[in-house]
């Protein structure tokens, strides 16, 4: 097993082990808890927590300092998937091969579970007694900017508005920078804030995050065309059926692959400006561009 | 014009004047902004900001220190109404006599506008440069607890689960304490945190908030039976049609009125433990129990 495989396995388990206790601690009815936990435990690569832990790893910072923020990142990502899957949005019955939240718990509970996951992620940061007040405010500022109208939700809206329309690569890039990239990049920024990295290194990590955010999305688009349905957990070609704007549609297979390689390289270049040991971050950037799911 | 009428008018305008700039500052598409602003500007009593400003008034604190928190409280309240009105939830076409958000902008945008309002409310607090870092973290902790699964969203879920079932007054009280009361009480707590009130006075303000939260809900139930449709902006008797559990249904008209008076008195009693000038808070507590909308 490579260093990276080991790192991914250990930290996937680390963040997944946090969820039951977080949800169990809530004072609310059992169906709401079950619905929240169902989607948190529905699998996934846990890329955002992974990136956060990788920054802490680079700076040799105690991983427990990143636990609440890692859980919060994954909770925000999960809420966005629950709401995206709703009949009024993408209307998906399956997510990672399992019934989507509203198929199991009903639409109303799914909406509320998403709302609760989002809200509680801020509570997790604010009540974290392992971080200084300054770092907590910095994290909440970064996270609320990257996940709201200025970031993820804004990107999601723009994506919806562009569906069925013909757009250019710049517009597509802007959409994905917000829809997917911002929350990936903020995982790096949060790691940098917890590690107390210098402003210069914080910026390198942010740029690294922006580039791998784009790589991530391009790879998603490629997997939709070239992936193995069994592994990616959804039908191959579903983007085309849904008239989605994708990098493959706009650039062709080879163009998309070239662009993926380019952003991965740009990400690598950013890491050379950082004095900490960025071995795992480099390996993660490679993995994001080469993964099979 | 009484002192209270003047206070309400001035501070309603104060918080409403904040919304256009807050929404305009967002970097996102115009439909999302319009949808967010539409519901923020759809009227309402602005009770939560009013309570916050009333605490600052009592302690002679500069109102501008409460502006971001006041806006955040109203944004969270507004997001909860947008999501509550959705077809999968209460399926309401009208809110305060105007078409609900999803009727104007479509369900998908309404869901996202709610998500964005919630998320940005935390950004507003975290990026407020008039408050100390300690106070900001305290506010975010209070707000995220009161509005998530532990508070408002939990109460909303419990309310939904109880619909059509026969429940007792204690269960109804528990539901409303969370669904409505927690966000009202937290407005008081946030005011106390900004004013730097002593822990003892903070607790009095919190208990005051809990009691007027219950008065508020009982009065809502009474207005649904006895109110003027033109003034309350929805059909009289709609709760009964929707098989909602209400105080009037469980206690009768007189029983509900007695309970309302009792909680208003309990709220007043809490204020006697506070050395600041609580004239406006007292008047607000009266107003909440006597209002016609």
UniProtKB/TrEMBL annotation, chains A, B:
CDD domains: Trans_IPPS_HT. It comes from Alkalicoccus daliensis. Belongs to the FPP/GGPP synthase family. NCBIfam families: FPPsyn. PANTHER family: FARNESYL DIPHOSPHATE SYNTHASE. Transmembrane segments: none annotated. InterPro entries: Isoprenoid_synthase_dom_sf, Polyprenyl_synt, Polyprenyl_synt_CS, Prenyl_diphosphate_synthase. GO terms for molecular function: (2E,6E)-farnesyl diphosphate synthase activity; metal ion binding. Its EC number is 2.5.1.10. GO terms for cellular component: cytoplasm. This is Farnesyl diphosphate synthase. The keyword RNA-binding does not apply. PROSITE patterns: POLYPRENYL_SYNTHASE_1, POLYPRENYL_SYNTHASE_2. Its cofactor is Mg(2+). It comes from the Bacteria. One of its GO terms (biological process) is terpenoid biosynthetic process. Keywords: Isoprene biosynthesis, Magnesium, Metal-binding, Transferase. It catalyses: isopentenyl diphosphate + (2E)-geranyl diphosphate = (2E,6E)-farnesyl diphosphate + diphosphate.
């Amino acid at each position: 097993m490579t260093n990276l495989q080991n790192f991914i396995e250990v930290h996937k388990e680390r963040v997944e082990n946090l969820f039951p206790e977080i949800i169990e601690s809530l004072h609310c009815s059992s169906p709401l808890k079950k619905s929240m936990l169902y989607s948190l435990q529905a699998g996934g690569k846990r890329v955002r927590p992974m990136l956060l832990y990788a920054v802490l790893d680079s700076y040799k910072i105690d991983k427990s300092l990143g636990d609440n923020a890692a859980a919060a990142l994954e909770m925000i990502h999960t809420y966005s998937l629950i709401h995206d899957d709703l009949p009024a949005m993408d209307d998906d019955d399956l997510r990672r091969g399992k019934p989507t939240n509203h198929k199991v718990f009903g639409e109303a509970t799914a909406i509320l579970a998403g709302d609760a996951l989002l809200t509680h992620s801020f509570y997790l940061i604010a009540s974290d007694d392992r971080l200084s007040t300054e770092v907590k405010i910095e994290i909440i500022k970064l996270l609320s900017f990257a996940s709201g109208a200025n970031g993820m939700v804004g990107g999601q809206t723009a994506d919806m508005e562009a569906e069925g329309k013909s757009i250019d690569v710049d517009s597509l890039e802007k959409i994905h920078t917000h829809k997917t990239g911002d929350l990936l990049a903020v995982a790096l920024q949060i790691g940098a804030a917890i590690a107390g990295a210098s402003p210069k290194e914080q910026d390198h990590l942010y740029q690294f995050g922006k580039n791998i955010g784009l790589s991530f999305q391009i790879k998603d688009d490629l997997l939709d065309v070239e992936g193995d349905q069994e592994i990616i957990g959804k039908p191959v070609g579903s983007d085309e059926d849904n008239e989605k704007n994708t990098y493959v549609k706009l650039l062709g297979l080879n163009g998309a692959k070239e662009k993926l390689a380019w952003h991965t390289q740009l990400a690598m270049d950013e890491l050379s400006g950082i004095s900490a040991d960025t071995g795992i971050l480099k390996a993660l950037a490679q993995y994001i561009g080469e993964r099979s799911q």
